[in-house]
Design a protein that fits this description.
With 301 residues, the protein is mainly alpha-helical. The protein has a two-stranded antiparallel sheet. Strands 3-4 form a two-stranded antiparallel sheet. The longest helix is centred in the first third of the chain and has 44 residues. The relative contact order is 0.13.
């Protein structure tokens, strides 16, 4: 019997080694065609002036110089950075608080989890228009609009993102809280630890893997926000600087790149492509730095 099992296992391994390209090949091809090749081509086009890919002319770093000289891009960068930091803190604090409440054995906790998670199932464009009507109805009573003041647009986006993402992050935090060893919590109670001491010295260190994931998702989602920004404010209101440049005060990076690419000047497409490369480097760098920092805080159970 042992020889048959060994022979059978060897046959399976040989079969796997022989046919794995047949199953893995289509996935690799799709990844190269759908991501790797467009990514490489996009980097090349960021150094070119073009209207169509076929007539691209290499111009070196000209597009990158124009991108950093664009006041609207610089404003969008700092506006997006502020939004990403504020939304990261608020979303994770609320999600963790809700997760803690729903893991205390209260009645109807499964129903509450479903209710909190449901907004994440709605598309960003739809959410943007829904909240646009809500804010206009509220602010209209005071004779103003979300499109008239930058502060309303900023906090409107914060409220929208919290409403959409808190439930999703909550699910991740609940999974982390349920994985905290019960014997460690019991030991803390026996030693006379208060709730706050148990939270900060036992619970949070053991939930760090969930915190790492949620912070990464919140940070990258904050920088990549596009649909909600387009539907809720469209970048409005705008100001005209002394040089004649129009700066949309609630325009985030992704929307700025979109508006640059589809702007009135076809020569701006190369500049938009350079902005997209800068955007990728920024998000990838911040995401990896955050992952490296928070993973060092994780404890081994």
């Amino acid at each position: 019997m042992k020889q048959k099992k060994i022979a059978g296992g060897s046959t399976i391994r040989a079969y796997t080694r022989r046919w794995w390209p047949l199953f893995l090949g289509p996935v690799v091809c799709a990844f190269i065609i759908g991501f790797v090749w467009p990514f490489i081509q996009g980097i090349y086009l960021s150094f070119c002036k073009f209207r169509l890919i076929s007539d691209a002319q290499f111009i070196g770093l000209g597009n990158y110089i124009k991108a950093f000289q664009d006041p609207s891009f610089i404003h969008a960068f700092w506006y997006t950075a502020l939004f990403a930091v504020v939304s990261l803190v608020i979303i994770n604090v609320l999600a963790f608080a809700v997760a803690c409440a729903l893991t205390q054995g209260i009645k109807g906790s499964n129903l509450f989890r479903t209710v909190f998670f449901m907004p994440n199932l709605i598309g960003g464009i739809v959410l943007g228009y829904i909240w646009s009507m809500i804010f206009d109805g509220i602010l209209g009573r005071f004779g103003t609009s979300i499109l008239l003041e930058s502060r309303f647009g900023f906090w409107g986006l914060i409220i929208l993102m919290c409403w959409q993402q808190v439930g999703y992050m909550m699910i991740i935090y609940i999974a982390g809280l349920q994985a905290v060893p019960e014997d460690m919590l019991e030991a803390a109670r026996i030693d006379g630890a208060t709730r706050s001491q148990t939270l900060f010295r036992v619970t949070i260190p053991n939930v760090m893997p969930s915190i790492t994931i949620c912070m990464f998702l919140s940070l990258t989602n904050g920088f990549k926000l596009f649909d909600q920004n387009l539907a809720l404010t469209g970048g409005q209101p705008f100001i005209i600087q002394s040089g004649g440049t129009t700066v949309k005060t609630t325009e985030m990076l992704a929307l700025n790149i979109y508006n640059t690419f589809y702007g009135s000047s076809s020569a701006s497409q190369g500049t938009a492509q350079a902005k997209a490369v800068i955007f990728f480097i920024l998000v990838a760098g911040l995401g990896l730095a955050q992952l490296a920092y928070t993973r060092r805080k994780e404890v081994q159970q």
